[in-house]
Amino acid sequence: MTSSSSQGVHLRAQAVSKSFDQREVLHALNLDIAPGEFVAIVGRSGCGKSTLLRLVAGLEQPSQGQLDQDLQPIDGLNTQARIMFQEARLLPWRTVLDNVLLGLPSSQHAVAVQLLEQVGLAERTQDWPAHLSGGQRQRAALARALVHQPQLLLLDEPLGALDALTRMEMHHLIEGLWQQRGFTALLVTHDVQEAVTLADRVVLIEAGRIAWDERINLPRPRSHGDPALSAIAQRILQRLLQPQKIHGVAQVREGIVTTA
Ligand SMILES: Nc1ncnc2c1ncn2[C@@H]1O[C@H](COP(=O)(O)OP(=O)(O)OP(=O)(O)O)[C@@H](O)[C@H]1O
Ligand SMILES: [Mg+2]
Q1: Residue 222 domain-assigned?
Q2: 157-202 per-position pLDDT tens digit
Q3: In angstroms, rounded to a whole number, what is the distance separating the alpha carbons of residues 138 and 143?
């Protein structure tokens, strides 16, 4: 991987648990993510993926254990991180450009325009978000996240609502920007094929615990049609679909999709 503007952050979770009321959602999680690494998190609905992202973003605090960034505890909002969600969450009364510039001085205007060009929205800078397609809105959200030059990009199913072709275009875009900028990336996805296409490592969370952690050594850029990629995705999917028992109760199989 090449890095021109940053090394990305080093993340380390040591025995991190998170409970809401009396219910423990993450259980003594250990995870070490190297600077600039691209890690995908997969797992069934409700297993704790978004909770982990929120902890890393500093939006929640661990109930137990320690969560470090560059060997310092994450304390309060993580200013190195930017997060993208399934919805673009653009302000409808601001133009695309003004959404990207939100909270920034006007001196950043040229940087914002350049980023919008990079994500393919050069012609749409003065449009209202309502006039963009879903994929274009996510491109604008990506530009808005990257204009802050984050060392950590958190992606919570940002492509979940897009069609297969737009998704593939977004894969290329995200991978290219990650290679160029060198940030650490943490992608939550229900799509195992997407995880294997983009990530250096795929981590499976099962009922709040890490059940699988696999390094993906395929060369980049990866092709959806590559049999080696499909074989890895299939293996992870099989593991994901194994019936699991929590407190003696079989869990419902839900929330897992793949484009394989
Ligand atoms: N603020 C909260 N208060 C109470 N419970 C919460 C809160 N946030 C999350 N939870 C619970 O924690 C569990 C894990 O939620 P989380 O959103 O992390 O799951 P997820 O793996 O992201 O699921 P999905 O794939 O459906 O997005 C769920 O049972 C959820 O209800
Ligand atoms: Mg979630």
Answers
A1: yes
A2: 999 999 999 999 999 999 999 999 999 999 999 999 999 999 999 9
A3: 9
Per residue in 23-59, pLDDT (tens digit) is 999 999 999 999 999 999 999 999 999 999 999 999 9
How far apart CA 157 and CA 238 sit, in angstroms, is: 21
Question: Which domain, by its residues, includes 110?
Answer: 85-141
Residues with CB under 6 A from ligand 1: 20, 25, 43, 45-51, 255
How far apart are the CA of 157 and the centre of ligand 1, in A? 14
Q: In total, how many domains does the chain have? A: 2
Residue 85 Cα, ligand 2 centroid: separation in angstroms? 9
Which among 207, 119, 209, 242 has a CA at the least distance from the CA of 170? 119
In a domain, 68, yes or no: yes
Across all residues in the chain, what is the average pLDDT? Answer: 91
What ligand 1 atom has the least distance to the C-alpha of 60? 1
Measured by CA distance, the residue closest to atom 5 of ligand 1 is 20
